[in-house]
Design brief:
The complex is a heterodimer of chains A (about 400) and B (about 500). With about 400 residues, chain A is mostly beta strands. Chain A has one domain: Tachylectin-2, Chain A. Chain A has one helix and 22 strands. Chain B folds into two domains: about 230 residues, no CATH class; about 240 residues, Sandwich (Jelly Rolls). In chain B, helix 2 crosses helix 3. Classes of the chains: A mainly beta (about 400), B mainly beta (about 500). At the A-B interface, strand 13 and strand 14 of A face strand 28 of B.
């Protein structure tokens, strides 16, 4: 059993603007009252007032700088103001300190992402679009609905990790169709979500991993040549096999909410996913995370011909470690010994190309959220739990 | 090594048509065989009997009956043969065994081979689909192998088995029997060895005989539902064309061997005319379970294709949940699946919703005599992985499915199913069905497929199904990043089938 090491992140707002790099104005109004979120375990990697959700993290490290992208509402207690924000992290005294949030993209006034934007991932490369050359590609979810269902996946590009971000076109790239994979049309479905990018050649070729909530809920990886974003070339769309993943009560567990990184050493694919939830109260999200690895052959190996009927199915995935609620406890604080009851939307901190950052460990960022009805939430905001999400970090040794 | 499932070429045995008394044809118009046909669903077995004008003195070792089976509700038609001697009826019943027969590859019998003919567990001779030849019935096997001392043959009978639930996995709720059995003649023969025929004594030459010369009765008594008649010129031409088709090689497309293209066969059309050939193509299908709406239509990948719709107005609430559309392979070459990696099918879903169907395959286990059914069921309910190439968008993708092959809305293209995804359903491995659960194409032929669709999730969604093929290549889904991996499209456009 590998040891889990909690990274206790000291909170600081000093020098935040310097860390932002491009001098953008912080997106949190200075005059607002800061309300502390509810801590049942380890600290968050940055603090922001209750009333702002900080969720769906995605992070890469380029040189000595971290870029942490996440989903955030730009107006306190207003869930119609979804945005993809980035915070720039610097390392000092053994810990990462993240600056103020800068908005990368917001909901459009009309069109496919006019109801919400969330769950972004970014990779470095070379991407031409409208006569300009960009170095960073973002895949993000968008929807016309306020509840983030029926989502599609689109792209944005930027010359710097902090922006300015330019949305690519006016249509999503992965368009979810509720009847394409259902005989009558699904009535309730998240859509195409959880994009995760890995560069194939450090140029324009990328794998886009995502989750599609069709009847059989599947994870896919699509080969894309994004060298020319005006005319993206699609390669194969490969379903991610599930052998080796186990969840109680299902024969076909999914890589729920998964994020992926590539390890050149050994040609391996590392993933972190949500366990199947047992939650019955809001938010109905996971209470366990799992880190896994598989040979990269999972994308291209096809079991051709007749196979031995007595042979067990091939197990592509092997577990590295898991993170449960209790693992998120902070035993140095009496009121934080239970840990977070809801932990979900994990990501692996990668290098700028979506590759392994450190072959000795995986740093996992994930989201926690306070449950609905928690008496510690302010009574004047019935839906305060919806604005309580925080992002935490833990490290799994390999 | 290719499987030679049914027949082995019998070296040196070249039989000239003129040497036979059995079913020798003169001018086609003057001496046509008799044809027994059952249009709809038989309520019971039916017996065809012939009484010679004078009893025939037995001279030889066996009764040889020459037949051609054109249509049948499954791969082989179970027949029961008997002779009457001294006022007593004797029946052959070899229960789950095999005997040899002689199979001819063309109508003039210029080439022949030894055929292994299966007997089912009910003691019936299973005459294979498109078999033309002689069923050899040794007198020593009468009375369950105890033999019978027969001096004179006063009557010979062939009993056709109606489709009912059987120990064949697929044998349930057949909508029609649709039998078309050609009868050429019957001889007493002397066997030189196991299957080489020496002297013959003619008992009956049905060619040119009137149907009234025989009697057709329901085996349980009463009036027969089938009909016996003389073959027309068109019937005989169809027989010649089907034989030519059956013994021709399958066409290939890239790395695929096409086992059914849903086109009228050129050889059949040449022999019997385009209209008759088109009708013969329509007649290859048999339904079980719910009735469905199907037809041959223009379109698909090339030529004509199968349109297959589960029409909500045809739904029978008391029936099975599925509609099954079955057909046997019209070419012997199509039954040889050795060396292939999986099944490929061209399908079009013309609707804006998901459609689904299954290609269930039937391996003829020659050790057990069972027709073994395999599909995408999994005893642990795990998903199966399929691979698709959309010919309109160029996209290639893999996806998961369960039991049925899912065809996404508006999809047009090829879907590949590796054999590794097929399994014997758990129910078929019970003693009653006897499926051994091991696909072994080096030893056993695959003789038919069933296209099944669940009714309630496919109401009024039409599928166009064209070429069903075997693929032999090793492929990847798309090859944008690694050109060393062959895409499905590459396999189709540049691949080849191993010789």
């Amino acid at each position: 059993m590998k040891k889990l090491i909690c990274i206790l992140m000291a909170l600081t707002f000093i020098c935040a603007l310097a860390a932002c790099g491009d001098g953008n104005t912080p997106d949190t109004p200075e005059e607002e009252t800061f309300e502390s979120k509810i801590f049942d375990g380890i600290d968050a990697v940055f603090d922001e007032s209750l009333g702002y959700y900080n969720e769906n993290p995605s992070a890469f490290q380029e040189g000595a700088t971290r870029y942490l992208y996440y989903t955030r509402n730009t107006v306190k207690y207003d869930s119609t103001t979804d945005s993809i924000a980035v915070r720039v992290g610097t390392y000092s005294n053994g810990e990462w300190t993240y600056g103020e949030p800068q908005t990368c993209i917001s909901v459009s006034e009309s069109g496919w992402d006019s109801g919400g934007v969330f769950g972004a991932d970014v990779v470095k490369g070379t991407f031409a679009y409208n006569g300009e050359t960009y170095s960073y590609l973002m895949a993000y979810c968008g929807t016309t609905r306020s509840d983030r269902t029926d989502a599609d996946i689109g792209f944005a590009v930027a010359k710097e990790p902090t922006g300015e971000w330019v949305k690519v076109g006016t249509e999503p790239f992965i368009e979810f169709n509720s009847s394409e994979w259902d005989s009558v049309g699904l009535t309730s479905y998240p859509g195409a979500i959880e994009p995760s990018l890995i560069s194939y050649d450090e140029g324009g070729k990328v794998y886009l991993f995502y989750e599609e909530s069709e009847v059989f809920k599947s994870n896919y990886a699509v080969e894309l040549d994004c060298s020319n974003m005006d005319s993206i070339v699609r390669g194969g769309r490969k379903v991610i096999e599930r052998g080796g993943i186990s969840d109680l009560g299902t024969s076909n567990p999914l890589l729920y909410g998964a994020d992926y990184v590539y390890a050149e050493d050994g040609d391996m694919l590392y993933a972190v996913r949500e366990g199947r939830t047992t939650a019955t109260a809001n938010p109905i999200v996971a209470d366990e995370l799992q880190a896994l690895r598989s040979s990269m052959d999972i994308l291209d190996t096809i079991d051709q011909g007749v196979s031995d009927p007595d042979a067990e199915p091939y197990e592509w995935w092997s577990e590295i470690d898991d993170i449960s609620s209790s693992d998120t406890a902070d035993f140095e604080s009496e009121d934080r010994i239970l840990g977070y009851m809801r932990i979900f939307s994990p990501t692996i901190v990668s290098n700028e190309y979506g590759g392994m950052l450190d072959y000795a460990s995986l740093e996992i960022l994930f989201t926690s959220q306070t449950c609905e009805g928690d008496s510690r939430l302010p009574a004047e905001h019935e839906d305060a739990y919806m604005f309580s999400q925080m992002i935490h970090s833990m490290v799994i040794e390999l | 090594m290719k499987t030679k499932a049914i027949s082995v070429i019998l070296g040196g045995l070249v039989l000239a048509a003129a040497c036979f008394s059995t079913g020798v044809l003169g001018a086609a118009a003057a001496a046509q065989p008799l044809v027994y046909e059952a249009e709809g669903k038989l309520s019971g077995d039916e017996q065809i009997s012939y009484v010679p004008d004078t009893p025939v003195e037995v001279d030889g070792d066996a009764l040889a009956v020459k037949v051609f089976l054109k249509n049948s509700y499954w791969y082989s038609l179970p027949l029961s043969f008997s002779v009457t001697s001294g006022g007593r009826e004797y029946t052959w019943d070899l229960g789950n065994s095999t005997l040899s027969g002689i199979e001819y590859t063309d109508a003039d019998e210029s080439d022949s081979s030894v055929a292994t003919i299966q007997w089912d567990s009910n003691g019936k001779v299973c005459v294979p689909y498109l078999f033309y030849g002689e069923v050899i019935l040794p007198f020593s096997e009468l009375n369950g192998g105890a033999g019978a001392d027969i001096a004179l043959i006063e009557e010979i009978s062939v009993t056709v088995t109606a489709a009912v639930n059987t120990d064949y996995a697929s044998g349930d709720s057949w909508v029609a029997d649709g039998i078309s059995l050609y009868l050429f003649g019957a001889d007493c023969v002397t066997l030189n060895g196991e299957s080489e025929i020496g002297d013959r004594t003619q008992i009956a030459d049905f060619c040119g005989m009137s149907a009234d010369d025989l009697t057709l009765t329901a085996a349980a008594g009463g009036e027969a539902e089938g009909a016996l008649r003389s073959a027309s010129d068109s019937d005989y031409a169809a027989f010649e064309g089907l034989l030519a088709q059956y013994n021709s090689s399958s066409e290939t497309l890239g790395d695929m061997k096409i086992i059914e293209d849903f086109d009228t066969n050129d050889l059949l059309a040449e022999a019997a005319g385009a209209e008759r050939a088109a009708q013969e193509l329509e007649d290859i299908f048999y339904m079980s379970g719910q009735e469905a709406d199907y037809s041959i239509t223009e379109g698909g990948y090339s030529g004509t294709a199968l349109s297959y719709n589960v029409d909500s107005t045809m739904y029978n609430p008391g029936g099975n949940a599925y509609a099954g559309l079955h057909f046997n392979f019209g070419k012997k070459d199509a039954t040889d699946w050795s060396g292939a990696n999986g099944v490929a099918v061209y399908a079009e879903n013309t609707s804006d919703h998901l459609a689904s169907f299954a290609i269930e395959i039937f391996q003829y286990n020659l050790d057990t005599g069972k027709l073994e059914q395999y599909n995408l069921n999994d005893s642990a309910n795990r998903y199966k992985t399929l691979y698709a190439y959309n010919v309109e968008t160029g996209e290639e993708f893999s996806y998961h499915t369960q039991t049925y092959m899912r065809v996404p809305a508006n999809f047009k293209g090829w879907i590949r199913i590796p054999f590794s995804q097929y399994a014997a359903p758990a129910w078929s491995q019970s003693a009653a069905y006897g499926n051994e659960g091991v696909l072994d194409f080096d030893r056993f032929p695959v003789v038919k497929v069933s296209l099944t669709r669940l009714f309630n999730v496919n109401y009024d969604i039409e599928l166009i199904i064209d070429d069903i093929a075997l693929y032999y290549g090793d492929f990847s889904v798309g090859n944008l990043f690694d050109s060393s991996k062959t895409s499905i499209r590459d396999c189709i456009e540049n691949g080849s089938v191993p010789a």
